[in-house]
């Protein structure tokens, strides 16, 4: 029997969650699970490549009377396509799915992919009211599961931890591609719309590293409203010629392959897709010890972990990797081995299908 699944998400932009969902949808092709997509607001061009039934609710706000007609349109879509499972991503889709649950026999699955940095007390109360109508929850890291168990009192047995996956076979590692180049590159892939990414810490660490490696070049890959002030900071620290802001790039993997060291400075993370990209490219990682980062980076084995905000230690770890070519290559190989064994695209898709089967059986 074909199982119709509806993925309910804010929009299909270019973020990590959206890319993971597109990957999952493509991975389900040929299985008995038929994906459908419903967005709350219009998406960019990224969703155009998905050959599945799609619908945009044109959602505005829960505070508007139009939310009732929005819920009615969602209910109509579920009935028309005989949906069996609705999986939600982010808060508003989560709450909207809870609204329509009394009118359908669908199973609801809520996806948690961060540590709730966006939540206010009012939003927390709304989420807690919605939890009982969900059949279960998927977390993309054990740290994410533990956070919601401890913060909201959810039962651990209602959770399934499914790590993000990456298509390792489609990526050519960059283990030695930078060996003959004079200018080592230290980079970060981060959204410049979120202060919790703390990109300014990367810039401050880069300034310290630059004092010891005048040939080094630094790269911020990402776009957002914080970029102008980050550029001012870089200029004030003497990095005007050494640091490049690429903005949003079409192929982040191609850019990551030019890195000698990949950095993450976030104060909160779920399972960081940028770290997975670094690992799949054979790039050593220096990351903050927060959220799911320690589940990806094992200290001294495939990278280094530093406390949030410790710019000096971060600079020391980057400096070590730039000085020690053999160590950098060794850690790069360890990354390739680990990402293939534990974070493959195939495992991510199969684990979702297994969980869907168990959810249907109750």
List keywords for this structure.
13 helices, six-stranded parallel β-sheet, Rossmann fold, 362 residues, seven-stranded parallel β-sheet, alpha/beta, 2 domains
What is the secondary structure topology, with strand pairs?
Blueprint: E1 3-9, H1 16-27, E2 33-39, E3 54-56, H2 67-80, E4 85-89, H3 91-100, E5 107-112, H4 121-130, E6 136-139, H5 142-152, E7 159-161, E8 185-189, H6 199-212, E9 217-221, H7 227-236, E10 243-247, H8 252-256, E11 261-264, H9 273-280, E12 285-288, H10 293-296, E13 303-306, H11 311-323, H12 325-342, H13 345-360
Parallel strand pairs: 1-2, 1-4, 2-3, 4-5, 5-6, 6-7, 8-9, 8-11, 9-10, 11-12, 12-13
Helix pairs in contact: 2-3, 3-4, 6-11, 9-12
Overall structural domain count: 2
CATH architecture of the largest domain: 3-Layer(aba) Sandwich
Can you summarize the main beta sheet?
7 strands, parallel
Q: Distance between termini?
A: 17 Å
SSE pattern: EHEEHEHEHEHEEHEHEHEHEHEHHH
- How would you describe the shape? globular
Rg over CA atoms:
21 Å
Count of helical regions:
13
Q: What is the CATH superfamily of the largest domain?
A: Glycogen Phosphorylase B
């Amino acid at each position: 029997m074909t199982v119709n699944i509806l993925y309910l998400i804010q929009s299909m932009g270019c973020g990590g969650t959206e890319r993971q969902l597109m990957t999952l949808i493509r991975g389900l092709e040929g299985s008995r699970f038929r994906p459908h997509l419903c967005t709350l607001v219009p998406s960019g061009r990224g969703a155009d490549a998905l050959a599945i039934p799609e619908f945009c609710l044109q959602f505005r706000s829960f505070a508007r009377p139009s939310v009732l007609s929005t819920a009615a349109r969602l209910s109509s879509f579920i009935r028309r396509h005989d949906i069996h499972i609705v999986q939600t991503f982010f808060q508003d889709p989560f709450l909207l799915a809870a609204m329509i649950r009394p009118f359908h026999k669908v199973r609801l699955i809520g996806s948690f992919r961060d540590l709730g940095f966006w939540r206010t007390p009012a939003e927390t109360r709304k989420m807690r009211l919605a939890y009982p109508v969900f059949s279960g929850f998927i977390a993309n890291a054990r740290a994410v599961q533990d956070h919601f168990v401890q913060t909201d009192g959810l039962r651990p047995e209602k959770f399934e931890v499914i790590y993000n996956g990456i298509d390792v076979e489609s990526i050519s590692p960059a283990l030695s591609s930078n060996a003959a180049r004079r200018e080592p590159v230290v980079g970060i892939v981060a959204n410049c719309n979120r202060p919790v990414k703390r990109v300014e810490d990367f810039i401050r660490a880069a300034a310290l590293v630059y004092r010891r490696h005048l040939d080094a070049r630094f790269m911020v890959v990402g776009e957002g409203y914080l970029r102008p002030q980050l550029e001012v900071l870089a200029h004030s620290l003497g990095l005007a010629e050494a640091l490049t802001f690429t903005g949003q790039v079409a192929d982040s993997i191609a850019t990551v392959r030019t890195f000698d060291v990949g950095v993450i400075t976030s104060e909160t993370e779920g399972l960081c897709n940028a770290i997975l990209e670094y690992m799949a490219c054979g790039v050593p990682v220096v990351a903050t010890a927060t959220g799911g980062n320690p589940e990806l980076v094992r200290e001294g084995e495939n990278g280094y972990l530093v406390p949030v905000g410790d710019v000096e230690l971060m600079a020391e770890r980057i400096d070590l990797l730039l000085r020690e070519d053999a160590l950098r290559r060794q850690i790069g190989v360890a990354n390739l081995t680990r990402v293939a064994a534990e974070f493959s695209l195939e495992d991510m898709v199969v684990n979702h299908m297994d969980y869907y089967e168990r959810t249907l059986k109750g």
